[in-house]
Design goal:
With about 160 residues, this protein is an alpha+beta fold. It contains 4 helices and 12 strands; from the N terminus they run αββααβββββαβββββ. About 25% of the residues lie in helices and about 30% in strands. A 6-stranded mixed sheet has the order 3-6-7-8-9-10, sandwiched between helices. A 4-stranded antiparallel sheet has the order 2-1-5-4, with helices on one face. A hairpin with a 2-residue loop joins β4 and β5. The longest helix is centred in the first third of the chain and has 15 residues, at about 35-50.
Length: about 160
Amino acid sequence: MPIVTIPVEEYLATNYQPDCDYVDGELVERNMGEQSHGRVQLRIGAWLYARESRLRIRGLVEVRLQINPRRFRIPDVMVLPIDAPREEIVSTPPSLCVEILSRSDSLESIWDRIEDYFAIGVPACWIVDPIGRRGWIATPNHLDKVTDGILRAGDIEMPLAEVLE
């Protein structure tokens, strides 16, 4: 398929189904649509939502995150501090971004997205594999497989078993 570039203004004014990342003028499809992906995304969102007041956070799913003027990513889930501005397109660095692997994803394929998150100051990312029932915690220049069953980011400690079916 030929690569078609579009202006950023067109990307921001268009609703794609499903929404796409925008990387230097190109639309980049995100792998999703599988039940295992959707269920884990819903469960992580619900888990975070139930703890928003206590943790002083605001969870979002599939919201555009501006990396720079020509790059926008759409994390599966992101977490903002409760006092972060309420931007329709988020430009404030989240405190956490979560990526859920689909069957055709790999850790390598998701790493470009995570490096973009780190470039704007996101301190931690979680990678969740619903099929392999495992997770990783990524911080700048470091990737750790979760061996004790707990995904951690700052004050957030989420048991992986609570969001995997």
